[in-house]
Amino acid sequence: xxxxxxxxxxxxxxxxxxxxxxxxxxxxxxxxxxxxxxxxxxxxxxxxxxxxxxxxxxxxxxxxxxxxxxxxxxxxxxxxxxxxxxxxxxxxxxxxxxxxxxxx
Length: 104
Fold this sequence. Notes:
The chain is mostly helical. The protein has a domain at about 25-90. The protein has helices at about 10-15, 30-50, 55-75, 80-90.
């Protein structure tokens, strides 16, 4: 049994359907924000460790879902994130050229 983690909304229902017992509660706004940021780090680490194309896809989907929740909690939508990314890309570039800065 693992304790204390933010999970997707249907996970308690899935565990119960499989005969498991769940103790869960709804987080406060402050707890939720903190848990989302921790979850983003965890899911990003899992993405970095993913070995196969399929694993990368699944972990990318998890990062995306957490990012959507963070955006919603922060009061903006994904279109705003995309617009901010486009502005930054126009001003500073993207990562497509694979540039590794050796020193600065």
